[in-house]
Amino acid sequence: MRPSPGLEMRPDPSLQAPVYVRQLAPYVPGKPVGDLAREFGLAESDIVKLASNENPRGPSAAARAAIADATNDICRYPDGNGFALKAALSARYGVTPDRIVLGNGSNDVLELVTQAFLRPGDQAIYSRHAFAVYPLAVQARGATGIEVPARDYGHDLPAMRAAITPATRVVFVANPNNPTGTWIAPEALEAFIASVPEDVLVVLDEAYNEYLDPAQNAPTAAWTGTYTNLIVSRTFSKAYGLAALRVGYGIMDANVAAMLNRVRQPFNVNALAQAAALAALADTGYVDESRALNRTGMRELEDGMRALGLAFIPSHGNFLLIRVGDADRVYQRLLEQGVIVRPVANYGLPEFLRVTVGLPAENRRFLGALQSALAH
Ligand SMILES: Cc1ncc(COP(=O)(O)O)c(C=O)c1O
């Protein structure tokens, strides 16, 4: 007998996805301002978002002008090879353009590495409490992620080196790391890279590089000439203030770049993003001011934590990881006051909240809201 209409067992095409895709837990971004405004009936202008490590100053005037100008041509496809932006990056870092891969955010560069180099059965290594995209990108290719326990919340490089096996294809290192803000000094970093077998790629994710004191900066772009297995990724999303446009880049050996370009979408970086990034790159004064503002704001947040008796992890980025205890409860109480920060339980840090350094008024608003959230 046929089952009555509507009750028959219909095949579920989603079950055709590989099991490693079905088991992926999607990336959880910071709560959008619009969502909080709707949920709590707040005006968007009253909400402070310190949840996604964006530059609170926004883009520079030069970048805004370049975007406005570029809108005239958006009926055309962008330059799929990003000639002008690559030329500028090439001049800045002293590497030929064929050693640069542009990405739709640096996230895209990370994905391209996994797409070009990982297949089921391969292993990729990353640290516990490191950026959440590494395990996701690895699992999406059916490869096996090896999470190495952290040391003092940062990368334990000797342990990561020891975790390399003949099946290892890629090692991810975030410097500074998100969400912990930990940083590896140049000597230790280079010694690690030199110790990795030459056929294992090292992805050095420097999304927060521009926030480092220039004296702390390692010549990582130049290292890619020495270590052909090194890929350095950078972004315009953070200090350059262009997160919504999605533009980042990787610097690497030309042959490795050629592999990423094989799997890259033809027009992965849009025209407004290319124009804005080109202008932003030239505006070094804006990045310097942003770094200085970040440093002052960071001191203000650290002082605030001391005053509240809260422990924090000293940070080299534009964010601070704070131990608040019942992080879920404190997060909710902050939301009620119109302040969005980032819970990090999914990073194995259930007692912590991550707060991005904001403008001076935003930092004060956060500190006040945190004080009442804790007093509750
Ligand atoms: C460590 C790290 N790497 C990469 C990214 C990706 O940034 P984007 O894709 O905007 O360049 C982020 C963003 O939060 C990050 O924290």
Your description of this structure?
- The chain is α/β, with parallel strands linked by helices and 376 residues long.
- The protein contains 14 helices and 13 strands.
- Strand 6, helix 9 and strand 7 form a beta-alpha-beta unit.
- Helix 13 packs across helix 14.
- The longest helix is centred in the C-terminal third of the chain and has 25 residues.
- The model has no long low-confidence stretch (mean pLDDT 96).
- The structure holds pyridoxal-5'-phosphate.
- The site of pyridoxal-5'-phosphate has 13 residues, from helix 5.
Pick out its properties.
376 residues; alpha/beta; 7-stranded mixed β-sheet; 4-stranded antiparallel β-sheet; 14 helices; binds pyridoxal-5'-phosphate
Secondary structure elements and their pairing?
Layout: H1 19-22, H2 33-40, E1 48-49, H3 61-70, H4 83-93, E2 100-103, H5 106-117, E3 123-127, H6 133-140, E4 144-148, H7 157-162, E5 168-174, H8 186-195, E6 201-205, H9 220-226, E7 230-235, E8 248-251, H10 254-263, H11 271-282, H12 284-308, E9 312-313, E10 319-323, H13 327-336, E11 339-340, E12 342-343, E13 352-356, H14 360-375
Parallel strand pairs: 1-11, 3-4, 3-5, 5-6, 6-7
Antiparallel strand pairs: 2-8, 7-8, 9-10, 10-13, 12-13
Helix pairs in contact: 3-11, 4-11, 5-6, 5-10, 12-14, 13-14
The chain binds pyridoxal-5'-phosphate.
The site of pyridoxal-5'-phosphate (PLP) has 13 residues, from α5.
